[in-house]
Design goal:
CATH topology: HIT family, subunit A
CATH class: Alpha Beta
Number of strands: 14
Helix content: 25-40%
Structural class: alpha+beta
CATH architecture: 2-Layer Sandwich
Low-confidence stretches: none
Number of helices: 6
Strand order of the largest sheet: 3-4-6-5-10-11-9-8-7
Distance between the termini: 26 Å
Amino acid sequence: MTWELRWHPFRAEWVLFTSHRGGRPWHGSVVDDPDPPVPAANALAPLGRRIGATNPDYRGVFVFTNDLPVFSADAPVPTVGDDLYRTRRAAGTAEVVCYHHDPSRTLADLDDDEVAAVVTTWRDRTMALQQMEGVDHVLVFENRGAAVGTSNPHPHCQIYAGSLVYAIAAREADVAVEHFERTGRSLLGDVVGREAAGPRVIAEGESFFACVPWFARYAYEVLVLPRTPVSTLCDLDDRACRSLGLVLRKVVRCYDALWGIRMPYVLAVHQAPVGDHPHYPFHLELHPPLRAPGLLKYLAGPEIGGGSMTNESDPDEKARELQRAVG
């Protein structure tokens, strides 16, 4: 595969594939140590947080409000702005979800019940936060590793719930409606039908499976897809939450086994904005920034300047690497 454009069906945009460039000479910087040493003491509980607050000596999953939230129920009403330079209240809240009290663990290290509890917490917090005044979208995400800017190695994710519908979710919602109106079919269902039967599946469960998608934007990008279309975490019962957790854990274990390091990644739960969005293509995306051990995938001229992704790898080959990593 050389010089090929592939359509990203969820985002309605082209991805340029140039797999022949993956082995080009590299004389730039490398990531020597993608993960800092894990402190012996618990990093988030009960030791100090950013503004001096402390958490109780919890066990298992624990949720608290971010000390420096990006949204707030106390956000002021803007006093400036016009039709061109518009403004709105940044209403809402932000939460931190600690996966486990042991700061040395990650999703890969949790047992079946523990990883199920993490996903169930995501669902329960989404349900609660969607009821808050001013909340139009709930974004669940995890930044793992120093290479993606994580400052605290304790296993945790964040939940942003606010008046902003994040741009990718808004686009995915619109694209899914257009697909349904044009074809009479579910966009998510069509993608699931293609990927579930393809060669790029790396983890399977009762209600979910994971794959390196045909239209991957990053070398080791993985999608976690529901076998039956749903729109949000709120649509999942406890059994489906458990299935999602087990599949997600398998993906992280594949990442870690690939090169024998804790692979850095950005994990995002793509779920519908608040309201009626029956066609929204719920899924999880994992984006590792490394294209090889120590080598980052830099977003440069084509991505930042041009606004379109270039993938210098073959998704089929990257899927085979992850499949072989765990036998």
